[in-house]
Amino acid sequence: MSLFNSNNNNNGSSSPPGDENPILTAYDQFVRDTPLVTRYILSGLGACYILSWFGDLSYALGTIPYFCFHPRWEVYRILLSPFICQSILSLIFATLSFLDMGKRLEHSLGSTAFGYYLLLMGICTNILFVCISYAVYFAKYPDGVDSLLWNSEGIWILIFAMIATDCSTATLTGGDTNRRLFFITVPTKYFPLALYALFVVFGGVGMGELLAIGIGSAYGYGYCHRYLKVSTVRCQQWEDSILLNFTQRPGWITGHAAMGRSAWSEEYNTNNTNSFRFFSSAPSSTMNTMSSGLPTTTTPASSNDNISTTTTPAFTGDGYALGRSPSSSRQRPTQSSEVRAAMLEAAEKRATSSGDVVDSGV
Q: What's this model's pTM, rounded to 2 decimal places?
């Protein structure tokens, strides 16, 4: 009988760690450690790469000025083109680059502001790209038709904008002063341009990425905040209305939990060293707590008390905090010897009188 029970217990228990699926375990850790917007972007890149097997997404979604406006009016290209990924090498390197800085920026800004930031960087870059293309067209008219067929696309537009914002913010707040580009140490302020130059040598980027560096740097230094930065109140309004469903999902960072510039502090870098930064040897910035922007420290609650912190009443006296038992509140002041003596004398009198009543009744 005991053998039967032990078998049932073994069957009902979870499988040992050695039998776990490593792919599922890695994905669960990815979901647990990665904020929501960053996770969605990386998942979308993988899906976009798979879709590229069946068609040319560059022609269908790329920001080609001739198609964006007259006569086609395919304005959606300006919004969607930054999320195109059609190369396996680009997918791998983009994932390694986007993962760390996506976490850092999303913890710094909050998920709502970070999503707005990505859309802002992509839209502003592509609008500026279209304007430059038309300017070249009119400057070389009628020989500038080729400029209307230029293309701006790819996740590297957002990555270069994020790198520029990351470096400019680190420079502004006195963070890391140098970053390593493979075996070369580059000042943080010029790191985005050095990386862009390296990509140009290998022929992997175009004008869109250079424009993204300029816009990302301007945002990091605060030049765009007056006109383009979304306010905390507006983010809260969006989270309470159109984004309410997303705020209830694991990994969403609300606006009040965002870290701000503390995401670039040395203390933050020291306490978070789990993620990998592909283009830099600076300390990484993975957050260990997904439910809030900062790791919190709470006072352990007692076994019979559901309140995790003790609040000292603002008034004086022998009362106790509302919602707490007297034993868990601050202790009453020690009573004086005179009061104890009076209480003992009264108890003795009550005992004596009760004894007299019993004797008379007998």
A: 0.67
